[in-house]
Write a structure and sequence with these properties.
Elements: E1 3-7, H1 18-26, E2 30-33, H2 52-65, E3 71-76, H3 80-87, E4 94-100, H4 117-130, E5 135-136, H5 138-142, H6 154-163, E6 167-168, H7 170-173, E7 187-192, H8 194-201, E8 215-219, H9 226-229, H10 231-242
Parallel strand pairs: 1-2, 1-3, 3-4, 4-7, 7-8
Antiparallel strand pairs: 5-6
Helix pairs in contact: 1-10, 2-3
Protein name: Alpha/beta fold hydrolase
Domain AB hydrolase-1: 4-236
Keywords: Hydrolase
Length: 243
């Protein structure tokens, strides 16, 4: 059985993983959702100084504090950035990295590099106008993809909006620095949802590596928040990834 550390994407906390974590525990795994600084119950610890390094340290400290071994580190969306950084620091504690609708970052890369210039400028304007210069709203994140909410009915989408927390914008603007690659023996897994599956199947050269060894790819036909829209199905794929 595996030790899962589940890291949520932008504006989310450990709560987003509740149903998937329960399904993983029913399979016999250990499932440990993590809330990053500045989000959900950790919102009071956030501030203008909260950046990508803060979240990398959150993940690393979480694993080391509990002396976790044979860890399967799961990143949803934005969490690909801090998980990539943490994976380079965890050494032999790490057995596997799983990217859920996201992909590993390279040294010098930030979240803003993935966003088209006009959309990135709108994010900056929102943060400046209504985010006290450092808070990125969930509505702004939600607006980045027109089909992200596939699989979410009105009640689930309302619940997602109600529980989401503004994202410290420094986590989007700070580039990844330092070790960005886990050891060669660390298993690498991708779970792609609708939009990402289409990008991969389009044969984009920059993403081609994700569909070949050592990567193992699983497709999940739902929107960008599978832990909310398809939590049991996501747990099933995570279970397959470690079996």
């Amino acid at each position: 059985m595996a030790n899962f550390v589940l890291v949520p994407g932008a504006c989310l906390g450990a709560w987003a993983w509740e149903d998937t974590a329960l399904a993983l525990r029913e399979q016999g795994h250990t499932a440990l959702p993590l809330t990053l600084t500045g989000l959900a119950e950790q919102a009071g610890r956030g501030g203008p100084q909260t950046d990508l390094n803060t979240h990398i340290e959150d993940i690393t400290a979480f694993v080391e504090r509990d002396d976790l071994r044979d860890v399967t580190l799961v990143a949803h969306s934005y969490a690909a950035a801090p998980v990539t950084g943490a994976a380079g620091r965890l050494g032999d504690r790490l057995a596997r990295v799983v990217y859920v609708d996201g992909a590993p970052f390279t040294d010098g890369m930030s979240m803003m590099d993935l966003i088209p210039p006009q959309a990135a400028e709108r994010l900056r304007e929102q943060v400046a106008a209504s985010g006290d210069g450092w808070r990125l709203s969930f509505e702004a994140v939600l607006g980045l993809s027109s089909s992200s909410t596939d699989g979410l009915d009105a009640d689930r989408l309302d619940a997602l909006r109600a529980r989401a927390t503004p994202q410290p914008f420094g986590t989007y603007t700070q580039p990844l620095t330092g070790p960005a690659e886990p050891g060669a023996d660390v298993d690498r897994v991708l779970i792609a949802c609708h939009d990402f599956t289409r990008l991969l199947d389009a044969g984009l050269p920059m993403l081609a590596y994700l569909s070949r060894s050592p990567w193992r790819r699983f497709d999940l036909p739902t929107g960008h928040w599978p832990m909310v829209s398809a939590p049991v199905e996501l747990a099933d794929l995570l279970g397959k990834a470690v079996s």
